[in-house]
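[User]
Um, tokens okay?
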Amino acid sequence: MTMTLGTALALFGAVVLLALALHGWWTTRRASPRPAPAADGNGERVEPSMDHAVAAVEAEPAALRQPPRRTPRLDALIDALVPMALDAPISGDMALQHLPPSRRAGGKPFYLEGLDTESGTWEPLQPGRRYGELQAGVQLASRGGPLTEIEYSEFVQKVQAYADAVGASTDVPDMLDVVARARELDALASPLDVQLTITLRTNGVAWSVPFVQQVAARQGLVPGPVPGRLVLPAEEEGAPPVLVLAVDAQAALAAMAGDGQAAPVRQCTLTLDVPQTPSSAEPFPAWHLIGKQLADDLDATAGDDQGEPISLHAFAAIGKELDEIYQRLEVLDLAAGSPAARRLFS
């Protein structure tokens, strides 16, 4: 959802009231059992953590390293996990050969990983590797809502068919428990799902799309993959954009086609998707300052989606509330800009 400034002001009180409940719930969730770690070649237990994966990549000779994979890693925090035990290791090629054509269950993505027999780390399935254990996971919630019974059933069916194809046995969590977790996570995360939008409305003549693009380029915004979207790229390669400036898509398409009679536009929106960017990147000051500069350069009024101008006092109040939201996200191990937060709030 896109949160207006008025709604964001009301959010602060709700977040504070939820703080104690969040802490108690998360303490319980962190204490919940996770899939048993596998043994490495020396018989020692190896926990499938991101730290081990990073260490393994750093230890590989440069010539043998694979290009970095952007596939999100499974996380017991936001995924329902299904361990798949193998009688003997299988090749990555075989594991990939039997993947279902679609890794979605309804509206929820699911992922498959393998425990590499050499490194003892969990990773997305890759050719040329050997895996002694597999696991699948379906995302418990997203901006589309919590995982439903129907989605979970579809996920289990696809995982079971895959397990049968590769000769693995599964340990499927109870549906009622998984769906209850999904609803719980969705209820706790929703108040922290903040998207701030400034609407820039012209004070006089309408703009052409190329003019808006020219003005936006001065602030470091570049064309995005979707017509009518200009983005402020993140410093991290492959990360979501810090800000998005949107104009009417039809007008943008007409301008791209060289239509001299392309419809002019009278407004555009600048959006900050809070959970997608770490607070250390200072996305809120960028949103505020770029919004103000665009308003000046476009001769526009910066307002909310109700048409009310945004005052400096309102910006200051929202900034304080965002500090509280960032803290609450960190308490949940869902810090803004983290892989888990980006997946959950998508």
